[in-house]
Specification:
about 20% strand; 5-stranded mixed beta sheet; about 280 residues; single chain
Amino acid sequence: MEKIPYKSVPDMLKMNAEKHPDKPALGYKKDGKYTTITYKQYYENVLMCARGLKKLGIKKGDFVAILSENRVGWVIADIGILSLGAITCPIYPTNTPEQIKYVINHSESKVVFVSTKSQYEKLLEIKNEIPTVNYVVSFEKFLGDKTLPLLTFNQLLETSLPLTKEDREILENEINQVLEDDILTCIYTSGTTGIPKGVLLTHKNILWDAYLGIKKVEVLDDKETLLSFLPLSHSLERTIGYYLPIMNGNTIYFAESVEKVPENLMEVKPTVVISVP
């Protein structure tokens, strides 16, 4: 039987960072123009994120939520979580405080990543009803409330503190402990026909989906560039618009918003866009 050369999603990123360290991995808008970070930089940031989460007490099997629109921070946080054998629980940024409360409490998430102050304020509304949350980490910089501990993403990563040889050995040992049958994510259904259901997917589920996707679309090569705009909270964009290109050594650019997609298409000139009928 055919075998995928990766044990887990973080193992996949690690191998590709070694294979093409200087290749652009992620692109995002900064100061009015698109800039990129390489596969090596992506992996370094992931290790720093894992280091920070480990210091917060996150360990294998813990749930960590991401309440954010698509952005570079989302995918760094995701693989940072997974590097410790923890489980990413994505929450749609359009969800109401009540919907967010259900997902956090049902998953017993211990840390929540948020994109903006408005997402943080949703958590403030329900702060007394989400007892498992110990920390909130924001991708953007703003002042938090003392009743709900807030760290910025840079504080979590301790970007001014380079990874030591010992840090790297400890974190890569953590990655080596993540197995293909370990749970990777819990994705909640929309709840339109009842209470949302948490769907558990393993690293093996996702890796095979991406791997067979590459084989099915034979024209894909490692020179493709993608523009990502469908929500990463959904399994389609997560697998085909994010994990598949990382597996394939492609560059992913993030659209600023759905409204800005036409403008971003002109700027990025992607060769592939994942969309729905």
